Design the sequence.
């Protein structure tokens, strides 16, 4: 299995080199040279596997022999050992047509743990086995940063710096990152929004001499291993509801900001998982909804919402979808991305738009709609949704058909977003690890939206002895 760039200017790489590269050296994103397909008989055999065994079977198709099977099993087992549910990602039936997959049972109570606990173990493995210096650099709209820090804090041979938008993540998200006092962790709180943070990260990774000099490694979903780890739970969700579906078609609804989570579902579908509809849920930052409905991919005005992890206007993983949409023509992808940079938009129409609408449906929930869903499901089902999952439920209600069942991904525990829950006149009890955060001191550096200042902070951080 080799990996190539969506823009076609990188020599094929193996799995380990692909993960270490993160953002492709030509500015594109790494994808498998060929997506492996899974037969019906294999799907049937996989349907009874535990989460970890399913993970190992899927990863084996992409890793092949680069990581010995015993080593990969140990990495997976360590990654999920501290999840609070034995199934890792349990599925709960809410009513006859709705199931919710709870992806918040990891250490930071968000779906990012599913991939990032593995990435932390993987980077530690590479650092020890190959003597690699690992300097992880990432941006977060809230959950990625906490999960990434938790995955590598205190690990020898690894340093991590995370940029987050100052005062634009929830208080719990901020505390989960900034109460960590390990010397190998640097939190930079940037005066700006997530897209500003993400642009700095992309610019630094595109500076190849800087990237090489400082051994920069990516933790964001630009890194293919994040996509692959998330693909596992699409298979697991499908298998868990197949019997209850009783022959009905199965949809999966995904709260999505950076397009990584929904692209993982698209990859599962390409591998042969018979998902009927992939439903994209967004909030008022609805660039993905507009793209699916009109063919226009154009960042709009940034809005702060009750679901801040989706407050994103520039969706990094959109380029991976564009690659497959354009029949894996890297030159066309490069041309489209140049057009986006030059003109600020991409517009599809006619047969092209019809293809997009065969791949996805999408709904952007308003702030009011989000809060209404939280109230409704607490009252009718005694189930408390976090605001991102509530956007997903709104999209499920919009697009799930009579002969269909839907799995909506619950991407975070509601305790992470109590600001929204309070607005619904609901009082929740915080899990003990979250409640404890409010009494801990914070460690962060507030900076302006300035790439040069980030560089200065990084160079100082990298010279520190840990």
Sequence:
């Amino acid at each position: 299995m080799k990996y190539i760039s969506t823009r076609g200017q990188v020599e094929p790489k193996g799995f380990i080199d692909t993960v270490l590269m993160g953002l492709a050296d030509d500015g594109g994103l790494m994808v498998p040279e060929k997506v492996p397909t899974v037969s019906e008989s294999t799907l049937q055999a996989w349907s009874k596997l535990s989460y970890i065994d399913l993970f190992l079977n899927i990863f084996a198709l992409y890793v092949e022999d680069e990581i010995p099977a015993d080593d990969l099993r140990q990495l997976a087992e360590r990654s999920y050992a501290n999840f609070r549910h034995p199934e890792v990602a349990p599925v709960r039936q809410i009513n006859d047509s709705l199931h919710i997959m709870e992806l918040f049972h990891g250490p930071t109570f968000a779906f990012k743990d599913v991939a990032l606990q593995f990435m932390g173990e993987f980077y530690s493995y590479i650092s020890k086995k190959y003597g690699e210096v690992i300097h992880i650099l990432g941006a977060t709209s809230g959950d990625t940063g906490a999960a990434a820090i938790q995955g590598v804090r205190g690990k020898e041979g690894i340093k991590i710096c995370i940029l987050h938008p100052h005062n634009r993540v929830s208080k719990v998200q901020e505390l989960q990152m900034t109460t960590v006092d390990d010397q190998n962790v640097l939190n930079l709180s940037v005066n700006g929004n997530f897209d500003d943070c993400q642009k700095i990260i992309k610019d630094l990774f595109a500076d190849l001499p800087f990237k090489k000099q400082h051994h920069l490694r990516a933790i964001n979903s630009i890194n293919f291993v994040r996509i692959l780890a998330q693909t596992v739970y699409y298979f697991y969700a499908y298998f868990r509801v197949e019997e209850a579906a009783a022959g009905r078609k199965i949809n999966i609804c995904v709260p999505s900001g950076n397009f990584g989570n929904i692209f993982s579902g698209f990859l599962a579908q390409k591998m042969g998982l018979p998902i009927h509809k992939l439903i994209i849920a967004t909030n008022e930052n609805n660039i993905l909804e507009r793209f699916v409905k009109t063919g226009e991919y154009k960042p709009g005005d940034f809005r702060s919402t009750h679901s801040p992890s989706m407050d994103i206007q520039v969706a990094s993983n959109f380029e991976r979808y564009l690659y497959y949409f354009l029949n894996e023509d890297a030159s066309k992808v490069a041309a489209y991305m140049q057009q986006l940079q030059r003109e600020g938009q991409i517009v599809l129409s006619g047969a092209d738009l019809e293809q997009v609408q065969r791949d996805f449906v999408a709904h952007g929930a308003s702030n009011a709609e989000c809060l209404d869903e939280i109230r409704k499901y607490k009252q009718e089902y005694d189930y408390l949704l976090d605001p991102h999952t509530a956007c997903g439920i709104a999209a499920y209600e919009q697009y799930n058909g009579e002969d269909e069942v839907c799995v909506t991904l619950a991407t975070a525990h509601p305790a992470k977003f109590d600001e929204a829950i309070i607005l619904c006149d609901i009082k929740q009890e915080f899990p003990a690890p979250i409640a404890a955060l409010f009494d801990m001191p914070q460690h962060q550096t507030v900076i302006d939206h300035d790439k040069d200042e980030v560089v200065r902070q990084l160079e100082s951080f990298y010279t520190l002895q840990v």
Summary: The longest helix spans residues 224-245.
